[in-house]
Amino acid sequence: MLIVTGASKGLGRAIANRFVELGETVVGLARNPVEAPFEIIGCDVADYTAVRGVATDVRKRKVPVTGLINAAGTASMNLAVTTPEHITRRLIEVNLLGTIFSCQNFAPLLMRQNAGAIINFSTIAVALGIKGESVYVASKAGVEGFSRAFAREMADFNIRVNCVAPGPIKTDLLRGVTDRQIDDIVQQQILRTVFEPQAVVDIVELLVSDKAAHLTGEVLHVGGA
């Protein structure tokens, strides 16, 4: 069984769909559940109690959990000094705390199998230091630091922890971002393109598979930083 957060739309939905196609059982988490070819449970990853409740439910099913993919996230392009407090808090709560809460509660289920893979999500904006994304970058830089340290903690349990840091992807997260802003980011990447979700899905599939058995504690930049 794979756990995928942010599974109702965008990148999380694309990832979950791919693993369903591969024959995996997927349990998705989303604030607003929708119809899908896999189970989606209503859960805000920024709510520790809610995440713990889902993890408890999954544990009671006594089905081996071999993967956790933390695709839930939110973004906002604002200069730091003009970012409202509620947006600042939401970016940190969803992106950083949501990732940590999911790892804290679901990793023990992988530890019972003494195997598995955890994939967290950052952004290429961390490496590039994109102007106008200071708070978003801070939330994702925290995810990168956490992932590196968590990889060391999980190594004794044969669990790999890696971080994927994409450039702009054609998902709902780009809604509200102007073409000029997107182009400014793309021009700083090595590969100057906006990616389809499937490009990232392919990388996640690789990281979960045995082909990446010796890769952990890494941050992979999709687009090149």
Brief digest:
This protein is α/β, with parallel strands linked by helices and 225 residues long.
Provide a descriptive summary of the structure in words.
It is a single chain. The chain has a 7-stranded parallel β-sheet with strand order 3-2-1-4-5-6-7, sandwiched between helices. Helix content is 44%, strand content 16%. α1 (10-21) links the parallel β1 and β2 (26-30). α3 (85-111) packs parallel to α5 (134-154). It is α/β, with parallel strands linked by helices. The chain has helices spanning 10-21, 48-60, 85-111, 124-128, 134-154, 179-186, 197-208, and strands at 2-5, 26-30, 39-42, 67-70, 116-121, 159-166, 219-222. The radius of gyration is 16 Å and the shape is globular. It has a single domain, classed as 3-Layer(aba) Sandwich (Rossmann fold), CATH 3.40.50. It starts with a strand and ends with a strand.
